[in-house]
Amino acid sequence: MTSKRTLVLFLLVGLLAAGVSWAAPKEVSLTIWTHTHAPANAYITKLIAQFQSSHPNYTISYEPAADNDTYESKLLAALASGGGPDIFNTASFSDMYTFAGLGQLQEITPQILKDMGYASPAAFKKDYVPGIIDKLYYKGKLYGLYREFNIFGLMLNKLAFKRAGLDATKDAPKTWDQMLSLAKKLTIYSGDKLVQTGMYEPLWNADWTLIPIQPLLTQNGGSILDPSGNAAAIAQPGALKTFTYFRQLARAQNNAPVKAPEDVWARFAVGDVAMYVGSTWTMPLLKDSAKGDPRFSPDNFVVVPYPKAPGADRVHAPIQALAWCVNHASRSPSEAWQFVQWMTSGQQAIGWYTEVGYLLPTKTMMDMARKNADVAKFMNLASDADLLFAHSKYNEIGSAVYNAWQATLTTDRDIGSILGDAAQQINETLSH
Amino acid sequence: MITPFRRPWDKWGLIFLLPGFLYFAGIFIYPTLRTIGISFTDYNLFTPPRWSGLHNYLTLFQQGVFLGSVRVTVLYVLVVGVVNYVLPFAIALLLFSSGRMLGIGRALYFLPVILPWVVVSALWKIFYIAPGPIGSILGLVGLSYTVNVLTSPSTAMWGIIVIALWKSFGFYVVLFMTGLQGIPAAYYEVADLDGANAAQRFRLVTFPLMRSTSLFIATVNFIGAIKEFDPFQIITMGGPARATYVMTLFTYETAFKFLRMGRAAAAALLMCAAIVVVTVAQFRLFRSGRD
């Protein structure tokens, strides 16, 4: 009798244990939205397929934006209605602060970090380039992981230099004054037709305003906001000097940078633009833009640091970053973060560079990247690089800076007055 | 006491009206009232609106960016409003008087009307590239086109105006043609018998009898111009240096980029008020000469 009871007990315990092991893992359904960048879209799709094959309980649907210009508005409307994707990339780095401030993001809690395999926040930070992870914190809470981390340098096209009788390697500008005189020499007109632009100055959006100007602005002791962060500093002498320089740069080229804003990548790829700013993703883009033109070759490009003003402490190369975030309304926040962490670590992180051209600031990836000659050119700039200006009211502040930049380059208005208007707009933004 | 006569099916009329009324209330009355309410609040879509009184309206009138957008809008509306009235009227008269090419002409000038703004914008962005198609065409007659008009604050708005006129004038030509075809031939015969010349025929017969059509076209054209958004968003995004930053773009950015829904609502209502005022003025203008 006792042996029967023992047998039944064993069977029950066995069945219970088997039941536990048979219990299907939690079904997880995730949606991802991103802006569109063809190589990134393809890589994310590939990663999702790979992840789902090893995690059959995950169903991940991916929707890259049909139109990058409206991506931010679409995301905003979706979040405001309480919906939206589980995982998304921010349209600008600052959006992470904006959305976090509005309570729309899921924090990466210490528990979620543990779920990701990190014993503590300190262990997590150790995986990244020192100090860089702090930028993902908002009011002491971690809200994002890096999607891309683009260190910018000055790219020179050897063909364009040669056309002007110069050598891109020997004649690369080291000071801003040298850049000014080089830009003048490198700009070539045939009659009134522009043949070659010396140094291109983009007129696209706020980020693309800050990418060329932030190093000189910082070197000149200028900034967008004052150290308190509560008032505009854009009308102060450092900024005035910076904007004046870039107007001179445009005028020295008979406004060539403003005259031909379209197809800049295609023109740069084949040597019709001599100098421009670029990052690790630029080369694949140039190759695509060249559309098989024999004048394109990766060997035609030299990467050098931005110029340095006399007396400046360092170059302050700009870093444009984007973050992955998780919607606070997500039903599977921990799983969403685990997927993002998987997507941006290990071999997957390396794939971001090899397949898309994006760098991520993980130590492993940085070490790997240094071994690649093309990446190393940019990595060498990382030691004195700064993230682009970011703020929870970036869209409004950036709009003021961008318009000041446009007015500086495309009109003859007094720059002091232009920057005064921008400062007034920024102060009005900060006061409400 | 006289009891009003009621037919037994009268109540059914009200019931049948109900869906239409609910639809109208849902998509027009409620959003309008809500917009008015929001315009008196500080609201960012994510946190509950906070009452701010007239602050949004006062801020708008102190804000250089908004006032700039009003100036840009006024320029656009005036030029498009006038040219898009005169030009289609002239073309319609030409086509009507010649009596030829009506079918082919109609197809040609109406084609841009049916094209979506996205297509039109992409097309004209390419046209305007310098050197490019326009430069090649002008080069045939010895003219040069070396700078993209969209890249200069002094010419960008004119570049958009040309596109807007090209896109919409065909619609107004059709309306004018319809109006002209509705004028009885007898009036012209009488004018001919009285020895009226072409100018007198236009001044004394055509123009007065086209008053209703003119009022409709002027009103629709004006409202369309003040509400124009697509070309400014797609082609120039309000630039360069806010030279094409119209009120609709200001409202859109204020709402969906800067998350200032109250201020955007106030701007939208001011735009609405401008439409009402000018529409009433147009009604008075076109009715003032009525016999």
Can you list the strand order of the major beta sheet of chain B?
1-2
Distance between the first and last residues' Cα of chain B: 44 Å
Strand count, sense and barrel status of the largest sheet of chain B are:
2 strands, antiparallel
- The radius of gyration of chain B is 24 Å
What gross morphology of chain A would you assign?
globular
Mean pLDDT score of chain A: 88
**Number of helices, where a helix is a run of at least 4 consecutive DSSP H or I residues of chain A:** 19
Oligomer description: heterodimer
| Radius of gyration based on Cα positions of chain A | 25 Å
* Largest interface, C-beta closer than 8 angstroms, per-chain residues: A-B, 37 and 32 residues
Strand content of chain A: 15-25%
- The low-pLDDT segments of chain B are none
CATH class of chain B, anyone? Mainly Alpha
Describe this structure in words.
The complex is a heterodimer of chains A (432) and B (291). Chain A is of the alpha/beta class and 432 residues long. Chain A folds into two domains: 183 residues, 3-Layer(aba) Sandwich (D-Maltodextrin-Binding Protein, domain 2); 208 residues, D-Maltodextrin-Binding Protein, domain 2 (3-Layer(aba) Sandwich). Chain A is built from 19 helices and 13 strands. In chain A, the strands form three sheets. In chain A, strands 1, 2, 3, 6, 12 and 13 form a six-stranded mixed β-sheet that branches. A five-stranded mixed β-sheet of chain A has the order 8-9-10-7-11. A two-stranded antiparallel sheet of chain A has the order 4-5. In chain A, strand 4 and strand 5 form a beta hairpin. In chain A, helix 9 crosses helix 18 and helix 18 packs antiparallel against helix 19. The relative contact order of chain A is 0.16. The mean pLDDT of chain A is 88. In chain B, helix 3 packs parallel to helix 7, helix 7 runs antiparallel to helix 10 and helix 10 packs antiparallel against helix 13. Helix content of chain B is 73%, strand content 1%. With 291 residues, chain B is mainly alpha-helical. The model of chain B has no long low-confidence stretch (mean pLDDT 88). Chain B has one domain: Orthogonal Bundle (MetI-like fold). In chain B, a hairpin with a 7-residue loop joins strand 1 and strand 2. Classes of the chains: A alpha/beta (432), B mainly alpha (291). At the A-B interface, helix 3, helix 18 and helix 19 of A face loops of B.
